[in-house]
Amino acid sequence: MAENHITSDECCQFLFDEKLLKSINFDESQKRLDISVSPSKLGENFVMRPLSVGDYDKGYIDLLAQLTKVGDITEEKYQRRFREMKECPNTYYIAVIENTDTRKIVAAASLILEQKFIHEIAMRGRIEEVVVHTEYRGKHFGKVLVESLTLLGGKLGCYKISLDCKEPLIPYYSKFGYKKEDVHYLVNRIYH
Hints:
With 192 residues, the chain is α+β, with helices and mostly antiparallel strands. Helix content is 30%, strand content 21%. InterPro entries: Acyl_CoA_acyltransferase, GNAT_dom, GNPNAT1-like.
């Protein structure tokens, strides 16, 4: 099956334990989102899994470039950042969808957890960097990733999960239970 394309070395180098993604019950989500796909049924030759140290060669950075500016990221820089993220347990959950035929990453999304003292030392989650390769849009991969990471955040004990999006995308993210709150979001962009 599709999973045998992932080498044992890459499996050991996942950003987080892949069992977390496999433990998500997606049945109600499929009905609510009116989609036939799920994390375990993405179609032949597609697999959803945690980001791997080997995903630089599978086009992860190129995929992110379809979303935003990424800069000049060498494999060495990628691996260093991957290790830094992995060394922060219970913080970074980046899920990807790989086309196992082409060995390319075709979709990705991130869940970042913030440890809090409020709400009885709860966690807050943020969904970020949701991107589907232009050639694979329309297959509901974005929906599967956002819903999976939202469910994962709940399972991990988040008291709330937020995401930032542009005004035209509010109806899309509303399908997952995200609501526009009456708060002001301010940004201080510091470029290096």
